[in-house]
Amino acid sequence: MSTLLEVDAIDVAYGDFRALHGITLRVAEGETLAVIGANGAGKSTLLKAIAGLLRPIAGQIRFAGHNVSHTPAHRRVREGIALTPEGRRIFGSLTVEENLKVGAYGRRPGPWDLTTVYDAFPLLAEKRSRKGAHLSGGEQQATAIGRALMSNPRLLLLDEVSLGLAPVVIADIYKALPMITGKGTTVLVVEQDLTQALTVADRVQCLLEGRTVLEGAAADVTREQVQAAYFGIDEQEVG
Ligand SMILES: Nc1ncnc2c1ncn2[C@@H]1O[C@H](COP(=O)(O)OP(=O)(O)OP(=O)(O)O)[C@@H](O)[C@H]1O
């Protein structure tokens, strides 16, 4: 598998506060990587840097073999990087279908259109004429993911899909993931929900206070190792 995304030793700061310290990660074409970590670990900051919304002060981001560190966010979308931000940010006054069409602006060629998005999220098909403001949290999340897919990304960045949603709704949304990856879309998902992260991902990388503290194949890391890394506990202390 060829490497699609290479993040090399990036530092990202908000003023004097350094949120990421030398983060390195790789995502191969077609794989799903879960970045996990507690509140404030730096997960959203990392996604924003990959999407081009924040500029690292050190390090490099390479996508599909070339350096995109200085490429503005809108051009990264055209190159195939799409972000579903934390908080969803869909348009409340637009219908589901209108929200999806917004994502198609400047789209790349590929498998994603209204039909395939509705196939992936049948709950949206039923609500296609409903205004964003009148959707449940889960429906808003599905709309936000569908909108990102409409650009036909090579890499889909998902920030905190599960935030504020009931477990059954989370499971419903994650059901779409095999179809998304099955169409060749590479996924980088940021999660606080360990169960979901370990279920959907091929590999996991755990951040703590802006540093990588654990990485490995999802099948190889134990839940205890992940929990210890997540909370910053030495493994001996876990029991
Ligand atoms: N706009 C900002 N200005 C200043 N500090 C920020 C800003 N955004 C985030 N931070 C700080 O950067 C660190 C990393 O935040 P980030 O949002 O990336 O964490 P996270 O792992 O995504 O957690 P969460 O799940 O809470 O979003 C935190 O200490 C946070 O307080």
Automatic annotation (TrEMBL):
<dbReference type="GO" id="GO:0005524">
    <property type="term" value="F:ATP binding"/>
</dbReference>
<keyword id="KW-0813">Transport</keyword>
<feature type="domain" description="ABC transporter">
    <location>
        <begin position="5"/>
        <end position="234"/>
    </location>
</feature>
<dbReference type="Pfam" id="PF00005">
    <property type="entry name" value="ABC_tran"/>
</dbReference>
<keyword id="KW-0067">ATP-binding</keyword>
<dbReference type="GO" id="GO:0015807">
    <property type="term" value="P:L-amino acid transport"/>
</dbReference>
<dbReference type="InterPro" id="IPR003439">
    <property type="entry name" value="ABC_transporter-like_ATP-bd"/>
</dbReference>
<protein>
    <submittedName>
        <fullName>Branched-chain amino acid transport system ATP-binding protein</fullName>
    </submittedName>
</protein>
<comment type="similarity">
    <text>Belongs to the ABC transporter superfamily.</text>
</comment>
<dbReference type="GO" id="GO:0016887">
    <property type="term" value="F:ATP hydrolysis activity"/>
</dbReference>
<dbReference type="InterPro" id="IPR003593">
    <property type="entry name" value="AAA+_ATPase"/>
</dbReference>
<dbReference type="InterPro" id="IPR027417">
    <property type="entry name" value="P-loop_NTPase"/>
</dbReference>
<dbReference type="GO" id="GO:0015658">
    <property type="term" value="F:branched-chain amino acid transmembrane transporter activity"/>
</dbReference>
<keyword id="KW-0547">Nucleotide-binding</keyword>
<dbReference type="InterPro" id="IPR052156">
    <property type="entry name" value="BCAA_Transport_ATP-bd_LivF"/>
</dbReference>
<keyword id="KW-0029">Amino-acid transport</keyword>
